[in-house]
Amino acid sequence: MFRSFLSWRYLTQRRTNLIGIGGIFVAVSALILILSIMTGFLNEARSSIRGSLSDILVQPIQLERENGDRRLIPPSPDRLLAVIQADPRVDAASTHLVWPGIITQEGNNADRAIAFLGNSQMNDLPMVQIVGIDFEQEFSATNFREALSRAPTVDKGGRPRGRHVDNIDDPFALPASYKPESPKRLPVVLIGEQLFSRLGLRQGEVVQVATIIPQSDNNADALPTNNKKFVVGGTFRSGENEMDLERIYVELDPLQILIGDAREYSEILIRLKDYDADGIAFRDDLRHSVALMALVRGFTSEVKTWEEFRASLLGAIENERTLMAIMLSLVLVVAGFCIFAILSMMVTEKRRDIGILTAIGATPRGIMATFLLVAFWDALIGTILGAGAGVWAAYKIDPIERWLSDALGVQIFNREVYLFDHIPADVDPTAVALIVAGTFLCTLLFAALPAWSAARTDPIEALRYE
Amino acid sequence: MTAFNDSTSTNAPRSPELSGAAGPFVEPKSGSESALQAVQIKRHFQIGNRELGVLFGVDMDLAPGEKLGLVGASGAGKSTLLHSLGLLDRPSSGKIRIEGIDAWALSPLDRARLRNHRIGFVFQMYHLLPELSAVENVILPGMIDPAGFLGLGGRKRRRELTEKASELLHSFGLGDRLKHRPSQLSGGEKQRVSIARALILDPPILIADEPTGNLDSATGQSILDIIFAEQERRLLSLLLVTHDGNVAERCDRVLHMVDGLMQSSESVAAEDAARVALEANEA
Fold first, then answer.
1. Using one digit for the tens of pLDDT, what is the confidence trace for B131-158?
2. CATH topology classification for B37-250+259-282
3. Residues 140-199 of B with CB under 8 A from A
4. pTM for this predicted structure
5. Where do the domains of chain B lie?
């Protein structure tokens, strides 16, 4: 009875204990808050990457090798699509024809655009990935429709960076703002919001898309280029910065015309009905069947899940989270040292009390328990307050960030970089439980040494101590 | 193991629900003629390579209900003996029996319980816990149950102890000082709190180590009055260490300690007479 009674009294009567509680509070709340934000980022990144990639990606290697290996796969995706769509686990599939290009505004001809390549000072060269799609396929197999309808972000002046297409059900229709200069009907291009904003484009404006095209004749002197005019139909916002800066979507036909029918497709994106349940099995089955049918060259890299495709990025985020958790755990160790210092000081100050307690019948174990209990109260109060504050801050991170940004006059979270209009924070109850348990363990471990030394205090010496 | 049989050692008023609440441990030997007994106690300390002797075979016997005074010059070994008798310091050799039990042969836990229940300690320096109020200091021994785990569930016991402590402090004239911290009390008041703490569990033995050593004579006298009154009321076995001959005279019997050995009153008187004679001759 005296242990809890006396330890509580020591805790409340000695202000130094507040430092220990404060240390634990800061460590626990910071750990929970930062891990929640990292988890939020991870989840947000996963969903945005997954959305733009669909579930399974088939990228057949279409290169012809020079050493006589002529095992070329069929140029048309039809047979591959037929195999994929025959599988009951498949929800939808979409073919992409992906080609590199340069986008320039009207007035810059393609030669001039190409000349940019040789200019070392032109590091803002708008090199883009031209993706040729069938929008209906794309809508069903990826989240392209969401990317087209997502509200555009705004710049510092409050102007929206993007511009929705006129009709989302027909995104490649010419926009109303387009004023045709010639009777020739131009195809429409959909541009990533970031690129649109950076180039200062307007909806209905005509742009030039230039590219190089593969040669059938290896002995030709010049590298053939081609360029084509497109009308800007609107923007999309995938939520992934790179993609919104480097990708433009066009319909398959104009792209094939631009590159001279060199390819029919580059990749097939597949959305499954239940990726979590069937993803890996479907990938393995598909690898096997399409390789047998010679629809791909047979390399495992040709059929991948979206997670495999983005393994390095996902791994990096996950790794960062783990690293952050380990580094922040050091804060717990610092809090532990704090407890160690406070308790050691208290044991030295309380030597006489220890002697008195022994004289009136306390055992060394009881004295050790008394001082351990002081650390326990420190941990209990610090952890409860810290966990509460950490969870609260994770839920309220946006207003907190805005308030801090205003107060400090610095933009803490740059929404332009991340393209999230909020700071993502997901509180993981398991992580919170682990942090709480770890704090208790750490505190009690650090308290054990001073408590043990209290238990070993010689009562005679202690009573003589004034 | 059974609970204490209170009637064997003393007729002091007891509240069995309190003194027995901590549970049974070692049964005092019934019919023991001695409350506290030291048999050939030797104590030496190792200081570097040197062995420093302090007690050289001390015998002492405190009968139940007896008032025994222990006097001696500073450095004679009184405190060392007291620490051994109070079970705080293990003697190098010899036996200490408390109500017939060889205390140093017990386990540390049983020894702690013996210290808790059978011996009350009054120190010269009061030794109150500064964080606790007067009444909390008094109930502290009652809250120590060396065998308890976390000592939880003692709300009722604490209330009973507090009531008893309040009564005790009232009877010592500290009724208006119950909630005061030691720092807010005078020396005499602190010592009265200390006496109340020593008596809260109704121990049969009270050891007082120079209880008036830090007080002026009037206050010291009032403290001694309380100690002797309680001794009489409770039939305590009292071991009173003092260097004041007048104080010692109030005891039934006085032992003199000289250079780590016990001497009878007669031999000490003879020595004193010889010293006085020698000094007179030299003069």
1. 899 999 999 998 886 555 444 456 778 8
2. Rossmann fold (3.40.50)
3. 140-141, 143-146, 148, 150-152, 154, 157-158, 197
4. 0.70
5. 37-250+259-282
